[in-house]
Design goal:
The protein is an alpha+beta fold. The chain is built from 18 helices and 20 strands. Helices cover 37% and strands 19% of the residues. The protein is globular, with a radius of gyration of 23 Å.
Length: 499
Amino acid sequence: MSSIALPDPDPEIVGRRDQIVKDLVAISGAESVIADDDGRRAFETDALTAYRQMPLAVVLPTTTEAVAKVLRYARANGIRVVPRGAGTSLCGGALPLQDSIVIGVSKMSRVLEIDYENRFARVEAGITNLAISDAVAPEGFFYAPDPSSQLACTLAGNLGMNSGGAHCLKYGVTTNNVLGIKMVTIDGEIIEIGGTHLDAEGYDLLALVIGSEGQLGLITEATVRILRAAEGARPMMIGFDSSSKAGMCVARIIASGIIPVAIEFMDRPAIEVCEAFAKAGYPTDAEALLIIEVEGSEQEISDRLAYIASIAHELNPLSLVVSASEEQSAKIWKGRKSAFGALGRLGDYYCMDGTIPLAHLPHVLDEIAEICRRHGLSVANIFHAGDGNLHPLIMYDGGKPGETERAEAAGAEILKLCVASGGCLTGEHGVGIEKRDLMRTQFTDEDIAVQLRIKSVFDPEWLLNFGKVFPLDAVEAVLTRRTEEASLGTSEGHPAEAA
């Protein structure tokens, strides 16, 4: 049983469900609408599975124009809309509401254009992350952001949450690798932001929309940067007898001026489970493991790995292994990419996502362990250590009364610790409903007010992904004020003023 409140449904909208479904079928065709109980149940949650709600209906359009028609209908009838990619969100970002239409983009997965000379690909937002790289790999190119769920997650979700991945240390997160988007507003207007080149003219609306979690519009297409693949790459594994030493090693590597492609961290619980799954040769006697990958020519790789090894040896590692083959490298990364799934074999877990300055890494890891111990729970740490993006996995049993609430309480403490350490609430998973009520931990009321005004400009009736990102009491205050001002005729035409 979760302690996070979900918005109350509008009984008038729920009562009109049969008519709404008929209208959607008329607009989109029966083949694009899911309205039966079994079909809707597949969309009642996302990867943050402690929360479940059945939507009014699900629509799976196949074109941008079809999306626009559904959004125009929703706006005209005051119906909330929840955008959805593959449902791999770990913060409840794709959780439906009982009075909402889910619009999924999974049927919009085509590669529309590839331009190798200018290094971009134009794709529909329902394409999976890995499919972009697969499409350009034959010509020696790749798409850099690589979340662990890249085999399943869609670009739509990556855009919504500004996802990163293991290799974002060198290549940046989603916003650093997108040149332009096509987006449908709640009015059903189709707009294009950015283009096929860097630094489009005018305001940087692209940066505003990417990471906005479906609050401003529904993205249907994107133009992404594709990069020439490096000549070669090789990972190394370094085992330590404490998480603090591993944290110090990460900080020293970055401070030295070397930027590896990736620096990934695992603690003992994660090492043991992932080794049992991947048979990658992880050091099961270690308390912490770093997977560090560098790329370049063979000489560059050898020189950089040797320099990193010299830094690690100052901290007396238990083991240091450099991959000797492509097969071994694949196993090393298979274990890391499969870590969340492998840990699921142990039971339920609550995956957090906070970011901290690297200098605080040893202290924060010790504090995370203490927080979970105090709540009577265990924790496994797997995260992108190079940029301080933490992913503590709090282990709990959802079948035991009170354990879900204890896991949430521990998670909230961890996120507050991240902010207190100079970091932030999220690195790549987003805010969703999970961190919604913690927004005031990081932002002042004035900060939140500005964000609410921006939201109101794009979505005056607050129909897009309602109940996510912003504290519910702040949203309720906005809507109440809007209603009062509308009745006095003072806010008509000025949605930003109502915030």
